[in-house]
Amino acid sequence: MAGYRIDRVSEDISREITAVIRELKDPRVQGCLLTVVRVEVNSDASFAKVYISAMEGLDAAKNAVQGLKSATGFIRRRVGGNLHLRKTPELKFIADDSVAHGISIAEKLKELDSGEKNDG
Known about the structure:
By secondary structure, this protein is an alpha+beta fold. The chain has one domain: GMP Synthetase, Chain A, domain 3 (2-Layer Sandwich), CATH 3.30.300. Helices cover 60% and strands 18% of the residues. The protein has helices spanning 3-23, 27-30, 58-70, 72-83, 98-119; strands at 34-41, 47-54, 90-95. It has a three-stranded mixed beta sheet with strand order 1-2-3. Helix 1 (3-23) packs across helix 4 (72-83). The radius of gyration is 17 Å and the shape is globular.
């Protein structure tokens, strides 16, 4: 499969998983604000790593990933049905702390900015 096709499939899977996460009834998933950071699909589209981040931090993301792992069959069926893929990739959910890391960087930048205004 060409590189642009894999990129397009990755984006489509990310969008569909985000929509399906909103519908899940698992309290581990519903209790926090989840973000699909990125989806990495291998070259033959048989396997996909889905990186999940939570606003509450890495512990909440790990807990949500446990809920997503238990709902993998449901999520995979919905993604395959909505995208009409010949072969729906096997999904592996991985906790990621990039959203929390980004928030901490933004807070540090805000502190630096307010420090410069006080000095000037």
